[in-house]
Write a structure and sequence with these properties.
The protein is about 40% helix and about 25% strand. The chain has about 270 residues and is α/β, with parallel strands linked by helices. A hairpin with a 2-residue loop joins strand 3 and strand 4. Helix 2 packs across helix 3. The structure holds adenosine-5'-diphosphate and N-acetyl-L-glutamyl 5-phosphate (X2W).
Length: about 270
């Protein structure tokens, strides 16, 4: 069985069209590649924290997560955002199963190296693949929020891109990041254009020159880690283009395809 991990960013979730969900359902029905959705919700968390007068900061694209912030992160991600996506898929006739990484010990995490710097931010150590495959075998499309569980049942906030990459690695699945941009943008003749493809070397230089910044940094890092650890194909796709997901699966050139090294094309 082949799987595809579809990561939906918080920047695009509210704008995903009914056709996006229909395409995901169609994929599942055809049984060639089984979809697994992992979602973010960064902007929704920030809005809720602001309403609650709780300050929030990011270091290296990761939200510094105090106990107080963690409560809100879990409430927003595993509550409202997760159920919003489950309802959207149900609405189009799909069988959706909303889960967080805590349910069934789906995502086991340890704190990332510097707990003083980031608070309760984790990195995924283990994915309960058996549990995930069982859900899929029962014809459900898993919709996963990136809260994980660790030693002593401690909760951790996981960047959604990194959670999606960990799941793709564990399943050797293709991975796509659905976001609010048409791909990795670079300046060409004073205008921004998406790269059709890029490599580890180019990504490192784009980060060093601040052309890749903010939330794009964990995304490209997650993409490279997934490729290094066994995901065959990884791309960043435009959530505003309805067919970008089906085009990616069909092997068409769409969004930015990320590779470890340059592939020499033979024509
Ligand atoms: N070179 C780049 N090309 C495109 N977007 C970039 C680039 N560098 C930084 N970004 C920012 O990354 C954002 C996407 O990351 P993020 O907001 O975390 O999205 P998501 O919600 O999909 O996870 C874009 O909206 C853009 O502001
Ligand atoms: C540690 C960390 O930064 N966690 C993220 C989790 C949500 C997320 O990643 O959402 P997007 O995909 O919309 O960015 C956060 O708290 O915002």
């Amino acid at each position: 069985m082949d799987y595809i991990v579809i990561k939906c960013g918080g920047s695009i979730i509210d704008q995903l069209s009914p056709d996006f969900y229909k395409n995901v359902i169609e994929l599942q029905k055809q049984k060639q590649v089984q979809p697994i959705i992992v979602h973010g919700g960064g902007p929704m968390i920030s809005t809720r924290l602001k309403q609650m007068n709780v300050a929030t900061t990011f270091v290296d694209g990761l939200r510094v997560t105090t106990k107080e912030v963690l409560d809100v992160v879990e409430m927003v991600l595993s509550g409202s955002v997760n159920k919003q996506m489950v309802r959207a898929l149900l609405q189009q006739g799909g069988q959706a199963m909303g889960l967080s990484g805590i349910d069934g010990y789906l995502l086991h995490a340890k704190p990332i190296t510097d707990i003083n710097k980031y608070g309760f931010v984790g990195e995924v150590e283990h994915v309960n693949v058996t549990f995930l495959k069982n859900i899929i075998a029962h014809d459900y499309i898993p919709i996963i929020s990136p809260i994980a569980i660790g030693e002593q049942n401690q909760r951790y906030n996981i960047n959604a891109d990194l959670a999606a990459a960990a799941i793709a690695q564990a399943l050797h699945a293709n991975l796509c990041f659905i976001s609010d941009i048409p791909g990795i943008l670079v300046d060409k003749n004073g205008q921004k254009h998406p790269l059709h493809e890029t490599t580890k070397k180019q990504i490192e230089s784009l980060i060093a020159s601040n052309i890749i910044y903010g939330g794009m940094i964990p995304k490209v890092q997650a993409a490279l880690t997934a490729l290094e650890q066994g995901a065959p194909c990884v791309a960043i796709l435009d959530g505003m283009k309805t067919n970008s997901l089906t085009d990616f699966i069909a092997g068409k050139q769409v969004g930015t395809s990320i590779q470890l090294e340059e592939v020499s094309h033979v024509y």
